[in-house]
Amino acid sequence: MGFVIIFFIAWLTIVVFTVMRKRLSLIENCFVYMVILVININWSWIVFEELDRIIISTAPLKNTAFLIVRTIIVPLVIVGALNIHGTFFSAKSWYIGILSVIVLSCVIAIGRYFDVLTYVHWSIVYDILYFMALHVIASVTLKFFQAIGRREVKAS
């Protein structure tokens, strides 16, 4: 049942991201998505496999649900939040960031409820802090990427 619900959430996330009005270009969206994807995969490898703080289910569908959360839902929610408001350097944009952290925390809570993940020496607070850090990293890398693009345009 956990796979079905997480698959539906992933499908819904993809549909909402596809139909939403985007403030970022396709290249900016891909860049931020790839940065968040790389960070998220490395983070989950360290926390799950190396430190053994969280145990991933070995059942095939539950493991697939975990992979869907890691590679589709988390990066798309963060990129979608950046598309709604740009970057996280204004007060209004923090509300969108907090809302997306709540959504991601609810997805993780659903995964925990259906035994996709089992916390050993971990807390949901650590996940919330991690999602906030991902938002800040995405915002900073987007600003850096946009600055490089403007510098290249001025130079040519």
Question: Could you list the spans in which at least 5 consecutive residues all have pLDDT below 50?
Answer: none
Number of domains: 1
Radius of gyration: 16 Å
- How much helix, percentage-wise, in residues? over 70%
* Count of individual beta strands: 2
Helix-strand sequence: HHEHHEH
What is the mean predicted local confidence, pLDDT?
A: 88
**Per DSSP, what share of the residues sits in E-state strands of 2 or more residues?**
under 5%
The main pleated sheet reads as: 2 strands, antiparallel
**Numbering strands along the chain, what is their spatial order in the largest sheet?**
1-2
Quick recap of the structure?
With 156 residues, the protein is mainly alpha-helical. It contains five helices and two strands. The chain has one domain (2-7, 23-147).
Structural key phrases:
156 residues; membrane; transmembrane helix; 5 helices; mainly alpha; transmembrane
Care to describe what's here?
Keywords: Membrane, Transmembrane, Transmembrane helix. The protein is 79% helix and 4% strand. With 156 residues, the chain is mostly helical. It has one domain. It has a two-stranded antiparallel ribbon. It starts with a helix and ends with a helix.
Topology (SSEs and partners):
Elements lengths: L1 H18 L6 H25 L3 E3 L3 H26 L5 H23 L3 E3 L4 H32 L1
Antiparallel strand pairs: 1-2
Helix pairs in contact: 1-3, 1-4, 2-3, 2-5, 3-4, 3-5, 4-5
Keywords: Membrane, Transmembrane, Transmembrane helix
